[in-house]
């Protein structure tokens, strides 16, 4: 069973995670008048050093510094303030959060797009911080979270990208910064690459995936080693009885915990709350069909072909301990090469961080993301 669980994790680029404690924030946010409190012993002062693996920065933690904290949203609180939006006959779950400053925001609105297996709640440690300067939206992609999971639906990256664009057009109705993790990042890339679209103001990619599943990354030697096995798993998962047995084992708490521990650099982030955030939607009707369709479906557009079409500002944040899209793999190498070639793209490597930086060590992400948002051009 351990092998099957690990292969499932590899197959999916990402089983996203969540953290329960408190949001750490850095002194840079003092001018933003953020309500917060001091803690005594926590360490998280961010220092910049040269990156060895990429032409960006390495952000690392240092000890003996005070950390300014903002309380995260509770999972039940998130559920209570979410809304529903009808998209092409399906119900989509989303959150709008404005924080204490209401509609008086200094930065453009942001839309947070989760990765595989996650939901709006995956951003609970980020929403309160970002809401100090931006109106924050977060969405459950079709097939995940509290959004519909229609039986027989063929999930594609293009469908998710269109959902994002329609959400911007119908709900946000304002130029918006897209912030995505893993396959959520790729969906945002596809949406931003739409030449006719004027509603995407900026793009933030957190360990962007190369496809909806790892069949897209055939030029990585690690994938080549297991590629025949991936095809076999595809075949087996299309057998209903086998898929049901496999999915039931994967969504067990300890199986999920083991997968999440392999994904996160900060192991303390993997607690009971996180496991339930991932597990609860997997128990819903239609979750198995979504799981099989995504794992066995087409990987979707390649970001290498899409990124040259994107002229808006782009911030890339990459955890250097990502086991799914490692910085030395083909996808990581491509994204790490972009800042030296394209002026609208910047990159920071985050040291000791896994596949989901925003939840793994959110203070490192905020120290880069918040100033970047505030520096976006006014139009």
Automatic annotation (TrEMBL):
Give the matching PANTHER family. ALPHA/BETA-HYDROLASES SUPERFAMILY PROTEIN (PTHR46438), ALPHA_BETA-HYDROLASES SUPERFAMILY PROTEIN (PTHR46438:SF7)
MF (Gene Ontology): chlorophyllase activity
SUPFAM superfamilies linked: alpha/beta-Hydrolases
Q: What is this protein called?
A: Alpha/beta hydrolase fold-1
Q: Where is the AB hydrolase-1 domain positioned along the sequence? A: 108-362
Q: Could you tell me the keywords of this UniProt record?
A: Hydrolase
Q: Does the keyword Hydrolase apply?
A: yes
Among the GO biological process terms of this entry, one is: chlorophyll metabolic process
Q: Does the keyword Hydrolase apply?
A: yes
Q: Which Pfam families match?
A: Abhydrolase_1
- Domain of life where this protein originates: Eukaryota
Classification via InterPro entries: AB_hydrolase_1, AB_hydrolase_fold
First and last residue of the signal peptide: none
Task: Name the GO cellular-component terms.
Answer: chloroplast
